[in-house]
Amino acid sequence: MTGTSTGTSELEALQSELLAEIATAQDLAQLEAVRVKVTGKKGPIAQQMSKLATLPAEERKAFGAANNAVKAVVTQSLEARRADLEEAALEARLAHERADVTLPVRPGPEALGRIHPVSQVFDECVEIFADLGFDVAEGPDIETDEMNFGKLNIPAEHPARQEHDTFYFPPKPDGSRLLLRTHTSPVQIRTMQNRRPPIRIIAPGRVYRCDSDQTHTPMFHQIEGLVIDETTHMGHLKWVLEEFCKAFFEVSDVKMRFRASHFPFTEPSMEVDIGAEAIGKPGQWLEILGCGMVHPNVLINCGLDPEKYQGFAFGMGLDRLTMLKYGVPDLRAFFSADLRWLRHYGFSVLDTPTLGGGLSG
Amino acid sequence: MKFTLSWLKDHLRTKASVEEIATKLSAIGLEVESVEDPAAKLGAFRVARIVEAKRHPNADKLQIVQVEVEKGQPLFEVVCGAPNARAGMISVFAPLGTYIPGSKITLEKKPVRGVVSNGMMCSAAELELATDSEGILDLPADMAEHIGGRYIDAAGLNDPVFEVKLTPNRPDCTGVRGIARDLAAAGVGELKDEKTISGVEGGFDNPVAIKLDFAKDAADACPAFAARLIKGVSNGPSPDWMQARLKAVGLRPINALVDVTNYISQDRGRPLHVYDADKLKGAVRARLGKDGETFQGLDGKDHTVDSTMCVIADDRGPLGLGGVIGGEASGSTEATTNVLIESAYFDPLRTASTGRKTGLVTDARYRFERGVDPQSVLPGLDLATQMILKICGGKPSKATLAGKVPDTKRCIIFDLDRVEKLSGLALPAEEITTILETLGCVLVGEGKVFEVTPPSWRPDIHGAADLVEEVVRIAGIERIPATPLPRTSGIARAVLTDRQKRARKVRRLLAARGLVEAVTWSFLPKAQAEAFGDGATLVELANPISVDLAVMRPNLLPGLLTAVERNRNRGIADVALFELGQAYRGEAPDDQFVAAAGVRAGTAGVSGGGRHWDGKAADVSAFDAKADALAVIAALGGDASKAQITRDAPAWFHPGRSGTLRLGPKTVLAHFGEINPRTLAALDVAAPVVAFQVFLDAAPADKKKSRAKPALGQSDLLPVRRDFAFVLDRGVNAGDVVRAALGADKALISGVTVFDVFEGGALAAEGKKSVAIEVTLQPSAETLTDKDIEAIAQKVVADVKKATGGEIRS
């Protein structure tokens, strides 16, 4: 018994000693040194364990168990100390590490890029007319006289040509000359020549007039609309335009005024004004577009029988729509690529117009 | 087209207000551009009498006058500085609060040298009735009956002037009577009966021979020419009423003979001309001009005619251009005693053509090019004769008519149901027929279908659609009920073509990369188009608006590059712009193509430019442009890694720092790189710029057939990475190293990246460089053994060496 009790008290002393040593370790390196020393193959616990063989058989079990208990306590203590020291080290690091988070960061490319207002408004128009089943048709800028005028019921020397200050290209040997389209209406012709009714299209694009002053630029944008079937009439035209204006200006009601007018390619023809309340300027009327029922001669020119087919067409200025909706003052600035202007009036890449999410985001 | 309210009332019985008339005119297609209503400007000014005038106690040049403004009411005390103010004088008074147009002030109650003036006595200049005037208006004594009344009413100045912007289809409304007819049809009053013009019986034959001298194919230039001589007229100023009306609509009174023609032109839309018969030699003939003939026009300028123009000539040569302008030499003056009146019909198209070629904008052209009523040839002549006889006296000859008044009578079969079918407006049959009849159409028939004969003054009405327009505009467009357009599908379907979708995507992509979208002109200065032509056939405008906008752009870059410099000049050094739009390789529709181009200058890289605490952004390089171009190609749905890169970018790029992205040898997807300093210098761009241009249509369409994504081929085995560094000749492309490494084992090698390029140190002296790559091996079936990996590594080294001559760096 004596031997055993001696052995036990030795173990107790060893445990106290080791725990004290662990407690004095001041950092992880010291603790690691303690661990190596204490739990190593030649460490005190291993040495105690080596005595096992010298003990009488009946004492071995108890001594072994006691020795293992010391080992467990010491190991646990080492781990606890490690956790404490790690926590303290992290605490010290966190207390030390400091960024001046008030320093500015770069905004990222998506904050710098812009969509041109005309592109944005074009996308808005596409959204609206897509809902009404209009496709988007396109045509070339360089057109023949026949497509820009003749087929649209504007023969040579027609007075209406005076209102189209046309850019021409030099005459060809046969006397014909190409021109820059003065309106998007040639796309009507191209569409009717290539498709059979029913037709619903819009045709946006660049158009050109030999004119430049405060409110005119030699190039600008139009959007054309065309519906051809067997029943569409002026009442539908009025409705489509009213619905378009409400959707486009994102208001519940727009005052509109339809005035009789004349265009060679429509009969009857109308000009349309909107009450400027829609853009926050009550009391004024603003002319926004011309429209009418497609002229029977135009239908015939495209191989359609006007006794059977009918429909409407309209044309409006995309730049003008943009100016009205977004309060852009000067048409000329649209084409000057001035970054100050583009950053101010341009749109974020995230402002994708949708009917569900709102056109202007 | 201008007219006054009183002039309109010559033809229209109406009580409608100026406002009502203007609104109706605009609604029915006669767009009112302006109404000048004197009542709005001068309505506050009253006729008043100065009862007493005495000197101002504190000022030598001022008087204090007591003014009777309202009969039997207390007098107004007014301070007046006019030297002519005197007791008993009838003049014009402006009460406090009146805006004085001539001096641009509003009268306020304030003392003048200690005496409060309760209004103002006014001069003609203050009412803008004269440019300057001495003293206040001194009205005749008989104006006393108007005391208290509005001065404009008393003086007959209250005649509002309308200006209508006529569309080209309405020649009838170039005369006041035509406008009155439209208003009457639209319910604003009643058209007065035309004063009957009794045929004027001439006392003798017209001694001036009138001839039409045209070849058959030009006979329509002037099919009818009527004329009459009046002998012994005494010409002089026209009557005051006529002068007042002409002045009100902006015409300058000349003399009675000329004024009569201008008056009838304005009143009836029937242009006429008067010749001093004593200045004519031989017959007067209408014929085509002869190239090189000249005459002096009434505008005082010399005009040269050509063989397409219709001239009126005598034996000496052209007197004037038919339907456009008369000549100075044969014109009537106050000394004219024998006058020849011309009333003719000139072809609208030829008149328009002559007008366009000569640039002459005249009242005659305005009417003839729209199509003057052919039936007005003889009545117009008689009307002019009557007025001249009344004003100038004289003895008229019989009328001569050369040629024949063209018969434009035509009949339209009109089904009244057409109105509702085309307009959506249901109208009673009677309303439709009444409108057409009021406009001058003759209707024959009953029930729903009529034969409609439009009046001779409406050359624009040809078919049923035209009649519908007449009915609808007069009945009122506002009555057409808005009718929903039937939907083509329940939920809206997608409408954009692939091409349109791709353009939309690229636009948003480039903006997301920090580029700002610009829209620049489709035309360029010729030098720029030439410099960026690259084999395109330049398309040059015949009539450019300026030399800077003269040739259709073959390329989007010049517009962007010059924009860079403009922005730099405004103090913005870091410029990142793009444009997505059309350019032109030639004039045919297929020559027009769509490209996306972008420029970056300064430090405007994709992550932003400028100085920053985190390190100044680097100057942009060809790789910024390359990254943009590849991003565009990826957005187009292409596999950017499949594009080959060649070093043959066009001449406007830096020869050593640019590339071309291709699909196969023929298809060029894009160019990118630094812009050649020579090109920049030619464009006056003072900073280095990198640029790209991607040809959207060159990228193949996305052939994806199914919306379902392919199965994800992921492997549970860990990838293995190995690094290699090769020493290469400096001229070898790193891309070739990458391609060779990728090809060493296509099944296992899933990626190769270049992680280091070193060209300095000892290597530089040998003309060498080092390129280090990381090769990723992705096993799919079983884990690779060291032996497998070693075999592949050997193959990589061997293949790279074979392709590039590169040695593995020890």
Describe the structure.
- The complex is a heterodimer of chains A (361) and B (810).
- In chain A, 42% of the residues lie in helices and 18% in strands.
- Chain A has twelve helices and nine strands.
- Chain A has helices at residues 2-24, 28-39, 44-50, 57-96, 109-112, 117-131, 145-148, 186-194, 234-249, 296-301, 318-326, 339-345, and strands at residues 135-136, 142-144, 178-180, 199-208, 219-229, 256-263, 266-275, 285-294, 310-317.
- In chain A, the strands form two sheets. In chain A, strands 1-4-5-9-8-7-6 form a seven-stranded mixed β-sheet, with helices on both faces.
- Chain A is rod-shaped, with a radius of gyration of 43 Å.
- In chain A, 45% of the residues are buried.
- The mean pLDDT of chain A is 90.
- Chain B folds into six domains: 2-37 and 160-191, Phenylalanyl-tRNA Synthetase, Chain B, domain 1; 40-154, OB fold (Dihydrolipoamide Acetyltransferase, E2P) (Beta Barrel); 210-403, Phenylalanyl-tRNA Synthetase, Chain B, domain 3; 412-478, Phenylalanyl-tRNA Synthetase, Chain B, domain 1; 498-698, BirA Bifunctional Protein, domain 2, CATH 3.30.930.10; 720-808, 2-Layer Sandwich (Alpha-Beta Plaits).
- In chain B, the strands form twelve sheets. Chain B has a seven-stranded mixed β-sheet with strand order 29-32-33-37-36-35-34. Chain B has a five-stranded antiparallel β-sheet with strand order 6-5-4-7-12. In chain B, strands 16, 17, 23, 24 and 25 form a five-stranded antiparallel β-sheet that branches.
- In chain B, 26% of the residues lie in helices and 25% in strands.
- In chain B, β34 and β35 (653-663) form a beta hairpin.
- Chain B starts with a strand and ends with a strand.
- The model of chain B has no long low-confidence stretch (mean pLDDT 92).
- Chain B is of the alpha+beta class.
- At the A-B interface, α5, α6, β1, β4 and α9 of A face α8, α11, α13, α14 and β29 of B.
